[in-house]
Write a structure and sequence with these properties.
single chain; mainly alpha; flat
Length: 95
């Protein structure tokens, strides 16, 4: 086993998590399984394999940055329930 029960309890304490004894045992076992699998992956010969960030080729789908006229105050406030001095008027939420 790579990870001890005490290490799981220590990390849980740092993360301010509380686990039952059964959960601690289960997490210890699961973390050990993950680490054993990582050891198995480390045994694979990867010489000559090009590192790959993603298997999907993506191109940026950004549009051109074009300056356009924005909404004027009258048009922006056209559907406002209430407006005052060019601003939206909303009910007070803090007393």
């Amino acid at each position: 086993m790579k990870i001890e029960k005490q290490q799981v309890e220590y990390v849980a304490h740092l993360a301010r998590l509380e686990f039952s004894a059964g959960e601690t045992e289960r997490f210890t076992s699961q973390l050990n399984d993950i680490l054993l699998y990582m050891d198995k992956l480390n045994e694979v010969d990867t010489n000559g394999v090009v590192p790959l960030g993603s298997n999907v080729v993506l191109n940026n789908a950004f549009r051109e940055d074009v300056v356009k006229d924005s909404l004027g105050p009258d048009l922006a406030l056209a559907n406002a329930p209430e407006a005052r001095n060019g601003c939206f008027l909303v009910p007070r939420v803090v007393e």
